[in-house]
Write a structure and sequence with these properties.
By secondary structure, the protein is α/β, with parallel strands linked by helices. The chain contains eleven helices and twelve strands. The protein has two domains: 230 residues, TIM Barrel (Alpha-Beta Barrel); 66 residues, Type Iii Antifreeze Protein Isoform Hplc 12, CATH 3.90.1210. The protein is elongated, with a radius of gyration of 30 Å. The two termini are 55 Å apart.
Length: 350
């Protein structure tokens, strides 16, 4: 049984899916919009909100060289410099405390992804309950070590990491004495195509890494997320926006409030449907057993008559002997007169 406790919520095996709304830079540098996003996430039923803690200077260099320009033709941010992009997407550090407090007042857990050591030091002053390592930082072992040394749960998006790299980052965390790890299956495309999700990996990760496994989903909609829950994801992180049409750096692959609510409610249903290994019908199915087939008399039978295919049949409902006895009853003698529509029982058979 693998579980991690964050604040007062258990996450892991035999726990309902934990849904995280990632604000990212969709607040568009508008504090009031960020507050409204948190209010909407709480109303939708999200269990947590997550910020990202960095500045452009802690992420990259302010250069216009080719290495520092987004050059993928299909990228949402094609042609932008990394420094300018991170400037637009960053959350001012002075916002963190009031936004965290607002989320907590609304009954949600609030935490963040630090992107360098100074961000960890800052978040420690706010006493965050856990940390998230972003997929592009999962090879930054010094950062992971510093986060793990806080003793708090560490959630890691595995992104492009190989199995060896995942084992390496897990060892880095555990070597600090911290055993509180949640790994997230993650496809680091924005947006990610469903065909690139490879959700079957969740099952393998559960078997391989001995810790709770969740999903960081950058695809459109909630289909991939719900499929992930069906395969055992205990935590689902989705980017969140109030209105995709109003823009936001990650708006294109973010959920709107009604979609987030749908994810929360439907993930509970998927989790409930998983249940446990069960054969022979659940408790609620017992009443339906009477509609299975059994052996009935369908013509008048006198005492001493022989049972034949002409006077007994296998039909619904299921109050008589099981159909498996039909052939063995043929040729036997009735112990008393039997009316049509009588369920056949052993006392009627000589």
């Amino acid at each position: 049984m693998k579980k991690i406790r964050i604040a007062d919520i258990e996450i892991g095996d035999d726990c309902q899916p934990f849904i995280v709304a990632e604000l990212s830079g969709n607040h568009q540098q508008d504090f009031s919009l960020a507050e409204k996003m948190i209010e909407a996430a709480a109303k939708a039923g999200a269990h947590a909100i997550k910020l990202q803690t960095y500045t452009p200077e802690t992420m990259t260099l302010n250069l216009q060289q080719e290495d520092f320009i987004v050059n993928e033709e299909n990228s949402l941010w094609q042609g932008e410099s990394l420094y300018e992009l991170y400037g637009k997407a960053s959350t001012p550090w002075e916002w963190h405390k009031p936004l965290f407090e607002k989320a907590q007042a609304l009954g949600m857990i609030a935490f963040s992804s630090p992107f360098d050591a100074s961000a960890v030091d800052f978040l420690e002053t706010l006493d965050v309950p856990c940390y998230k390592i972003a997929s592009f930082e999962n090879n930054d072992l010094p950062l992971i070590r510093k986060v793990a040394q806080t003793g708090k749960p560490v959630i890691v998006s595995t992104g492009m990491a190989s199995q060896y790299e995942i084992e390496e980052l897990i060892d880095t965390i555990r070597d600090t004495g911290n055993q509180q790890i949640i790994l997230l299956k993650c496809t680091s495309n924005y947006p990610a195509d469903a065909s690139d999700s490879h959700l079957t990996t969740i099952v393998h990760m559960r078997q391989t890494f001995n810790c709770p496994i969740g999903l960081s989903d950058h695809s459109n909609g909630v289909t991939v997320s719900l499929a992930g829950v069906a395969l055992g994801a205990c935590l689902v992180e989705k980017h969140f926006v109030l209105n995709r049409q109003a823009g936001g750096v990650d708006a294109e692959f973010s959920l709107e409030p009604n979609e987030l609510h749908h994810l929360v409610t439907e993930s509970k249903k998927v989790y409930s449907a998983l249940g446990k290994i069960q054969y022979g019908g659940s408790g609620n199915e017992q009443q339906s057993k009477k509609y299975r087939r059994s052996i009935y008399c369908h013509k008048p039978i006198a005492k001493g008559d022989i049972f034949t295919e002409e006077n007994i049949r296998v039909i619904r409902p299921g109050f008589g002997l099981a159909p498996k006895y039909f052939e063995s009853i043929l040729g036997k003698i009735a112990t008393e007169s039997i009316k049509p529509g009588t369920a056949l029982h052993w006392k009627l058979i000589e």
